[in-house]
């Protein structure tokens, strides 16, 4: 297939992607993702709520710091900004519909090219919002969440909400206002803040306390505006430890939860967690999910993976069944995502240059999550996974252990218990058994 195709025939050779089951050898079919299959009491599509990332799939060019673009797709060939934006949106909605994705997500500057004129940018975005509204009505696609890109423009080199220059913060606020307006107009279910440059490169020129206070005030101001204008969904914060900024204030799930608690934002905000961001923070994805779930703030996820040889955000499509099975165990036990979904914040590789590669990448990602969901449910329903963990903490469910949990024991009483009962028994954590158990159900 050519890398540059006529827009009218762009996806003409690609059929609507269907579920064909494990016996299928068709690379353009699902082998695991059967959207109507009931798992743990709900159809797959309700557990997974897949979304396409507008930016990577339709703005990604394959360029990197060492080379020019390699993804020369036809929606980038129109002459003016609105023409390019409409061609891109035509392609995006056709693609998402053929895949059967129920949702999409966007940054403002993904939808249409911005200039340095605030009013002109607002007019451009409003034009495309009307076009997207028509597309949603025609296809049934919905907006999972919208957001504003407050990190690419050079004015944001020192951040947006945390910038030392108030003028820059005001420009960020103008973008967020327009993006919130667009999200509301399109029936968006959530709104995301990703502070790509909300942090610092060196403390030598940084007042960290003031920057975080300004960040919190910015979030309150944006939240209050959205609520006044009828937005009833959740706001998500997306943690990331570094890159592009050396130290970002939304470092990981625990850091963000502490920030939200300190600045009285817990009632309106949840977390949007990304696999590759978790690993950059030195955690597993499962760890970040569990931290959020334990706090009741597991809102949504960005699905991708990193490369174990590279220490940066490579945004590759997910393919690790073991990792995702462990992730789905957390999500299932938490009762699912709170308002969000699974957004494929991933990009095809620089040398994957055909439009078919976009389909193969998403089919693989959707199938691996569906397989992980089925596997995790089987583990929870058919194995002794839950019982092993419950038994491991059984000493806190009765007697002195329960009294401690209920706040009924003093430090002196704890000391006396230790002296009376002698050395504790060594009890195995059975890690290898549990690892083998997951492999067995895979």
UniProtKB/TrEMBL annotation:
Cofactor(s) for this UniProt protein: Mg(2+)
InterPro entries (alphabetical): Xyl_isomerase-like_sf (IPR036237), Xyl_isomerase-like_TIM-brl (IPR013022), Xylose_isom_bac (IPR013452), Xylose_isomerase (IPR001998)
GO biological process assignments: D-xylose metabolic process
One MF annotation (Gene Ontology) recorded for this entry: magnesium ion binding
Compartments where found: Cytoplasm
Principal subcellular localization: cytoplasm
Family to which the UniProt record says this protein belongs: Belongs to the xylose isomerase family.
HAMAP family registered for this protein in UniProt: Xylose_isom_A
Name of this chain's protein: Xylose isomerase
Provenance organism: Hymenobacter jeollabukensis
Lineage: Bacteria, Pseudomonadati, Bacteroidota, Cytophagia, Cytophagales
């Amino acid at each position: 297939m050519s890398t540059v195709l006529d827009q009218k025939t762009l996806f003409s050779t690609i059929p609507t992607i269907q579920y064909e089951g494990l016996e299928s050898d068709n690379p353009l079919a699902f082998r695991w993702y059967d959207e109507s299959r009931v798992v743990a009491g709900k159809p797959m599509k309700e557990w997974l709520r897949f979304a396409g990332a507008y930016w990577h799939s339709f703005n990604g060019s394959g360029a990197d710091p060492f080379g020019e673009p390699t993804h020369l797709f036809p929606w980038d060939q129109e002459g003016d900004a609105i023409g390019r934006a409409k061609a891109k949106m035509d392609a995006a909605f056709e693609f998402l519909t053929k895949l059967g994705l129920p949702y999409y997500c966007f940054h403002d500057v993904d939808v249409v090219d911005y200039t340095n004129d605030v009013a002109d940018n607002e007019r451009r975005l409003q034009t495309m919002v009307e076009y997207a509204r028509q597309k949603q009505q025609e296809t049934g696609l919905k907006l999972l969440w919208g957001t504003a890109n407050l990190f690419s423009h050079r004015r944001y080199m020192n951040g947006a909400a945390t910038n030392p220059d108030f003028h820059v913060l005001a420009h960020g606020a103008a973008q967020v206002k327009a993006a919130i307006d667009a999200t509301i107009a399109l029936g968006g279910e959530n709104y995301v803040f990703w502070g790509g440059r909300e942090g610092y490169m060196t403390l030598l020129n940084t007042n960290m306390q003031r920057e975080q206070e300004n960040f919190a005030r910015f979030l309150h101001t944006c939240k209050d505006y959205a609520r006044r204008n009828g937005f009833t969904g959740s706001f998500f914060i997306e943690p990331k430890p570094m890159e592009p900024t050396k130290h970002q204030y939304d470092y990981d799930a625990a850091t963000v939860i502490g920030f939200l608690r300190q600045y009285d934002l817990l009632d309106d905000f949840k977390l949007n967690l990304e696999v590759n961001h978790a690993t950059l923070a030195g955690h597993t994805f499962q760890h970040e999910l569990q931290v959020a779930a334990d706090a009741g703030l597991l809102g949504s996820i960005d699905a991708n993976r990193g490369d174990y040889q590279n220490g940066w955000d490579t945004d590759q499509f997910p393919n690790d069944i073991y990792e995702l099975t462990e992730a789905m165990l957390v999500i299932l036990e938490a009762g699912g995502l709170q308002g969000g979904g699974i957004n494929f914040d991933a990009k095809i590789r620089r040398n994957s240059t055909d439009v078919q590669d976009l389909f193969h990448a998403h089919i693989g990602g959707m199938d691996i999550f569906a397989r992980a969901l089925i596997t995790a449910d089987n583990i929870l329903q058919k194995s002794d996974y839950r019982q092993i963990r419950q038994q491991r903490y059984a000493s806190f469910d009765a007697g002195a252990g329960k009294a401690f949990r209920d706040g009924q024991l003093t430090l002196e009483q704890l000391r006396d218990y230790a002296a009376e009962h002698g050395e504790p028994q060594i009890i195995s954590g059975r890690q290898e058994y549990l690892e083998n158990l997951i492999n067995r159900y895979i």
